[in-house]
Amino acid sequence: MASDTKQLDHDLNSLKIDRNRGRKPDGPPKWAVRWIVAGIVVFVLLGLAATAFRFTSQAVEVETYRVSAKTAAAAGDDPGIILNAAGYIVAHHKIQLTAKVVGKVAWIGVEKGARVKEGQVLVRLEDSEYQAQLLQAQGNLQNLLSQLLELETGSRPEEKARSAANVAQAKADLENARINLERVKGLFKEEVVPKQELDNAQARYEAQQARVDSLTKDLELVRIGPRQEQIAAMRGRVQQARGEVALRQTFLDSTIIKAPITGTILERAVEKGEFVTTSFVGERGAKGYVVSLADLNDLQVELDISQDDFAKLNMGQKAIVTTDAFPDRKYDGVISEMSPEANRQKATVQVKVQVLKPDDFLRPEMNARSAFLAREQAARNEGAPAPPKIVIPTAAVRDVSGRKSIFIVFQGKAAERTIKTGNSTSRGIEVAEGLIGGEEIVLSPPATLKDGDRIAVKAKQG
């Protein structure tokens, strides 16, 4: 039994695995570590290179447009229209009616939009002060007229008679003095009176003689009348007074403000009790004008035409006018005004188109469009077939300092090409040189897009 137990233990021990037999030292060998590290470095470098390549060669996503050459009829454009432009309806002559005098508004009889006739009373100002000034000027004129009449009429008969009586009295006194002088001379010779009496009698005679001479001259002046210089001076004063009366009358008349033309009230700028002045002060202060009005049968379209398109237009050129408010209504127009100078900041020239037959649908400041028709000489070539034209969206054109270019899609890259543009149409802008049709161009190219950049075309919806 004991022997069987020993045999069993021996057999069990023989079945155990010796874990220490053939065991290698801890950790991998050095050559394996080197290969592992080298492999990791290679993978990291390859990842960095791939990332850098993706960033440096990342394509810009863009939308594209396929260029096609079409005739005017196929494109749906009017072959007679050479330019479309947008602007605003304006009154040809807009009047801001001002007062010639200052004062408070006593009455206003119009509202915005009212139609008025020439000469119709629109506003009345308080006039009591101007009436008083007119009365004062009229009184002064009457005073001066009376003085002038007196000078022109001359002396009255009574004045002449009185002067003549004074002369006769003086002559009588002179005769009496002469007789007295003769008597004293005789007495002096007889030595009856002293020398003093003779001297006194002589002095009285000479004084009386001088008085007669003076009164005689006065009588002559009374008979002749005032001097012509005095009459002329008084006439001048009268004329001046008449001018003052006319001026005060004008001031009084100016308190009644009338419509200068037949038209429509565009703005009512004052209310009763507000103060009106002859110059603009401010919204809350005195007003510089009372109403603004215009003849709405005399309307124009004000346009800012690009300098690139200005050469296509000329005075008297016909146009078709439409508005955003009533696009189905068309009006005949003609170029009536072209600004003599350009706008440097906007690179435009202002052009005005006269609307020939406006109606009640048109309003000043409405958005409007003008389609300019070809010149008369272009009609002579209507028999010849029109060459195909290339029209591309305006958004595809890049304009840098007047140089216009587009980007063509070529082998996954953007190729910049300079073009020469022509007329603007409802579909875009015509290309005169630089495209032949069939090219795929970039729409709305990013500002950072350059010639040779990789691009990726966005998938089109639909």
- Give me the count of strands: 24
**For the report, how would you describe the main beta sheet?**
6 strands, antiparallel, barrel
Strand content: 25-35%
As for the number of domains, it is 4
Assembly state = single chain
Output the number of helix runs: 8
Helical content (DSSP H or I, runs of 4+) = 25-40%
N-C termini distance? 96 Å
> CATH fold name of the largest domain, please?
Helix Hairpins
For the residues shown, what is the average pLDDT? 82
Q: Provide the low-confidence segments as ranges.
A: 376-382
Our Rg estimate from Cα atoms comes to: 56 Å
What would you call the shape?
A: rod-shaped
What is the structure about, briefly put?
Helices cover 36% and strands 27% of the residues.
Describe the fold and architecture.
It is a single chain. By secondary structure, the protein is an alpha+beta fold. The chain folds into four domains: 90 residues, conserved putative lor/sdh protein from methanococcus maripaludis s2 fold (Beta Barrel), CATH 2.40.420.20; 97 residues, Efflux pump adaptor protein, beta barrel domain (Elongation Factor Tu (Ef-tu), domain 3); 70 residues, Beta Barrel (OB fold (Dihydrolipoamide Acetyltransferase, E2P)), CATH 2.40.50; 117 residues, Helix Hairpins. The protein is 36% helix and 27% strand. It has eight helices and 24 strands. The strands form six sheets. A six-stranded antiparallel barrel has the order 3-12-15-14-13-16. β18 and β19 form a beta hairpin. It starts with a helix and ends in a 5-residue tail after the last strand.
